[in-house]
Amino acid sequence: MKTTSLIMMGGGARAAYQAGVLRGLARIAAQHGRASGRIPFDIICGTSAGAINGAGMAINAANFHVAADSLAALWSGIHAEDVYRTGIVGVGASGARWLSALAFGWAIRRAPRALFDNAPLGGLLSELFDPERVQASLDAGDLQAFAVTALSYTTGRHVTFYQSHRRIHPWRRSQRLAVEARIGVDHLLASSSIPFLFPALPLELEGHHEWFGDGTMRQMSPLSPAIHLGASRILAIGAASRQRPGWFDTVPAGGYPSLAQVGGQALASIFLDGLSADLERLQHINSLLSRVPEIANDREGWRPVQVMTISPSEPIESIAATHVQQLPRTVRALLTPLGGTEARGAAFASYLLFEPEFTQALIDLGEKDALAQQHELAAFLYDVIPPDDGDDTNATPARTVTLDIEPPAGVTA
């Protein structure tokens, strides 16, 4: 049987795009009479804000329509103050700590933990996320596994925390390991703690606590957890647009790059490059196997995995540039000296733009991108033969790739 996995990457407020894609997928499912049934994914793997979206799917795994609509409603009504403190006291105190650390760090010997306090997000997740509902989805067979990945600042290891319907032995690789755990709010917060912007959280690991932050950092194999958990086909939804050639020509050069511009490129390397590199690596392996087919056999641990990716068709940076003034006044005051409210710094601001006008624009874009590939997505998820219309220029072909990996115990590779 085919085992389908959903992988969602991070990107702060950009992850609203994923909710739009899922809403589009629910519309596609409805066209084939499957909207009120379970989600079309057996395994859900999330990282950073994608972990939060994954949790929303996991607790509503029995009803795809409800799961998709709930996520879209959450993102379309969210505000920055729901995610991090935006009051003048909170933002002012954070800014003062950073200035003090830069000016008198040698004397106070205490560095600030993050630019923003994301305690409101913890409260929001505590209201919306119920770990018992994840376990109920697993017990009912509506879901086979749910996984969340975070980076340990303490040891530099990537840790995938997972729950599964049946016993799957943990795996270990260089600087990567998996731990069976009952996923809670702390795991979601830790995985989505964007470096420097949000503080790290302590999580228990092998009998002690380590400090964890955003799981997309140094995540060179984002597809790996899904394959270890038994996926034979993967739908990966990114939250970072692949910039078209010439897009930066529309942004004023403005001389030396601002701190926000540099920060935006740094965050892009975190949230985009890992998935792209992993896909390219798998394509190279697939090409090798097509030339030397005799090395592809179960005994050696090689097996085919279909992968289809969806990412924004329009630059999110340009969308953010038109909405950056909707950030709370205190946040704009903090970002303005860094260049975060300028067009060339909009990429950095987009990760913090938890405001309805921006997130709704991303939801609409995600739904549009999904519907533009509806025939191929229906074929990929439901094995529906696409109509032969002779022209489907908007579709991105699903790629069959292979990965050298040991099949997890209890899962047929």
TrEMBL record:
Ranges of residues in domain PNPLA: 6-227
Stored Pfam families: Patatin
Keywords from the UniProt entry: Hydrolase, Lipid degradation, Lipid metabolism
Organism from which the protein derives: Cupriavidus basilensis
Short sequence motif named GXSXG, residue ranges: 46-50
Gene Ontology terms: biological process: lipid catabolic process
Protein name: Patatin-like phospholipase family protein
SUPFAM superfamilies: FabD/lysophospholipase-like
Active site: 48 (nucleophile), 214 (proton acceptor)
Keyword Lipid metabolism appears in the UniProt entry: yes
